[in-house]
Amino acid sequence: MRRYWLALLIVPGLLAIAGLPGVAPERIPAGAAYADTNSNEVKRMPLTLPDLPYPYDALEPFLSAETLHLHHDKHHQAYVNGYNEAEAKLKAAREAGDFAAIRALCDALAFNYSGHLLHSIFWTNMKPGGGGEPSGDLAKQIAADFGSFATFKAEMIAAANSVQGSGWAVLAWQPLGQQLVVLQAEKHQNLAEWGVTPVLVLDVWEHAYYLQYQNRRPDFTKAFFEVVNWDDVAQRLAATQE
């Protein structure tokens, strides 16, 4: 039987990822829950930082090796650590029956898990020699939902450029409307829609670009489309239809 793991954010306003192919317990994605057949106990693995799918300098000149190293190894790692720490504190709170800090714990879980999830997508949404335009079913869906690729690209860039403060632009599959939508996410978790599946994300936190682009966010967001991995985006969209 084909198995699936579900990484579902359960705090209001968060993004959801569902239906990713399952694997054997020893290779379960970090943070997934699985049943220990020896004890019949459900165990949850801590989150871990995923490896980059390319060398640090692979996306130059769009992103410098220094920027990518700092972004991945420091900032993304901080979200992983923050989530694991919040999980440990929540476990202790359950054991003690003391939920006085539940508001802060919910906030930490939502912020850090959303940051981890979006960054994990962001790295694979890019590749050396990427860019151009999508093809196949992805291209057809974009044309159906936005009128044209050019219109989608303009909307995605406009959404990214107008995020207030730190956040993301997100292309996501909306199951109720059976359509692709462009969303903004302030910080990592605010302003999203329940149940959507992100397929393309663009990080516009200042740490994502400031070392190289300073305050020229529009230059960064425009250049992003020169490295988009449309194969990855297409695979993510196809997974929503399975």
Question: How would you describe the overall organization of this protein?
Answer:
With 242 residues, the protein is an alpha+beta fold. It folds into three domains: 4-37, no CATH class; 65-124, Helix Hairpins (Orthogonal Bundle); 136-239, Iron/manganese superoxide dismutase, C-terminal domain (minor pseudopilin epsh fold, 3-Layer(bab) Sandwich). It is 42% helix and 17% strand. The protein has seven helices and seven strands. It has helices spanning 65-96, 102-124, 136-146, 149-161, 210-213, 217-224, 230-239, and strands at residues 4-8, 16-21, 33-36, 41-44, 167-174, 179-186, 197-203. The strands form three sheets. The chain has a three-stranded antiparallel β-sheet with strand order 6-5-7. Strands 1-2 form a two-stranded antiparallel sheet. α1 packs antiparallel against α2. The chain is globular and about 55 Å long.
Summarize the structure.
The protein is an alpha+beta fold and 242 residues long.
Count of folded domains: 3
CATH topology of the largest domain: minor pseudopilin epsh fold
- What is the number of helices? 7
Helix/strand order: EEEEHHHHEEEHHH
Uncertain stretches of 5 or more adjacent residues: 1-30
Let me know the average pLDDT: 86
Helix content: 40-55%
Give the end-to-end Cα distance, rounded to a whole number of Å.
15 Å
Radius of gyration from the alpha-carbon trace, in angstroms? 18 Å
Largest sheet: 3 strands, antiparallel
The CATH class assignment of the largest domain is Alpha Beta
How many strands appear in the DSSP assignment? 7
